[in-house]
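Exercise 7b. Backbone tokens:
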């Protein structure tokens, strides 16, 4: 990958997103420099139309103090972060926004508004998180799930986690995404629940309970990423060496994996929450500008895929 000449994997995502119109996005409590600048810059790049939800005077103060030009950006006044989260979710429910974006509030506070029984954005799907990773040593964008929300997912949870990731990969232009279901070993072992879950997920995909992708597992990480490593162990797999999605056994494994890729392999990671009525852009204060913009680009394409699904259902 050559980032200097703009031929990286994230850059290709941005190229695809240029064909689309920006998507109205409720930004919850952007009351910190990087959160506000990220939303405004994504708006300037034509990815989103930011609707800033939070204390109007404070947002204006932060913008002026840091040279951020708000221009004609809409600001919806809300007295504090809790109210901003609730109001941002309300804008989505009203159809005034098609994406939700985290500002400088805590993730739990935003997701609390999302999962609220009467006023939230829940669907029949389990909500899950994906890291969309640009790993310099890998040949395409890699999705890691779930590394941030579901701590110890059950088999049924993993069905939704997998389907959420598949739907996103398809929205990003992957015709039939390949899913490597990770465990410590590549054989089914009753003493290792992750291997049993992996085998069940593969059978469930064969029976149409998971759709749109090609699943294989259990696979150890080396067998998932390296075709050669799989062949040495006698594993015949159409997924080995070419997965689009790594489905991890639990949050701890996923979080460690994603951070290893970021800090040891210099990967960039964009973050989204899926399974709600709309995609939710999760950013961290430590995210690079490139990662923030990529998160918005991916969410934008997911929002367009959602539009097509809703139109097809009418």
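Sequence design result:
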């Amino acid at each position: 990958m050559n980032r200097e000449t703009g031929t990286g994997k994230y850059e290709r995502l941005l190229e695809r997103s240029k064909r689309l119109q920006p998507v109205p996005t409720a930004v919850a409590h952007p009351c910190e420099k990087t959160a506000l600048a990220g939303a405004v810059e994504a708006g300037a790049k034509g990815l989103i139309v930011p609707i800033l939800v939070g204390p109007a005077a404070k947002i204006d103060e932060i913008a002026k103090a840091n040279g951020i030009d708000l221009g004609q950006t809409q600001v919806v006044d809300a007295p504090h972060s809790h109210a901003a989260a609730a109001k941002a979710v309300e804008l989505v429910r009203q159809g005034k926004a098609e994406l939700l974006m985290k500002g400088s509030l805590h993730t739990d506070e935003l997701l609390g508004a999302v999962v609220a029984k009467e006023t939230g954005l829940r669907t029949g799907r389990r909500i899950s998180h994906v890291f969309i990773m640009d790993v310099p040593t890998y040949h395409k964008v890699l999705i890691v799930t779930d590394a941030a929300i579901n701590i110890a997912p059950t088999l049924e949870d993993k069905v939704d986690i997998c389907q959420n990731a598949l739907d996103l990969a398809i929205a990003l232009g992957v015709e039939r995404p390949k899913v490597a279901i990770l465990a410590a070993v590549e054989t089914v072992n009753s003493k290792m629940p992750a291997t049993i879950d992996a085998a069940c997920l593969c059978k469930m995909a064969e029976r149409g309970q998971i759709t749109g992708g090609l699943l294989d597992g259990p696979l150890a990480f080396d067998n998932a990423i390296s075709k050669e490593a799989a062949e040495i162990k006698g594993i015949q797999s159409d997924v080995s060496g070419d997965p689009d999605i790594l489905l991890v056994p639990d949050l701890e494994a996923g979080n460690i994996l994603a951070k290893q890729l970021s800090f040891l392999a210099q990967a960039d990671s964009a973050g989204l929450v899926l399974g709600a009525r709309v995609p939710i852009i999760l950013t961290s204060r430590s995210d690079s500008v490139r990662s923030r913009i990529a998160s918005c680009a991916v969410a934008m394409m997911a929002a367009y895929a959602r539009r097509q699904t809703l139109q097809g259902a009418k």
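Instructor comment: The chain is about 40% helix and 20% strand. The two ends are 42 Å apart (CA to CA).
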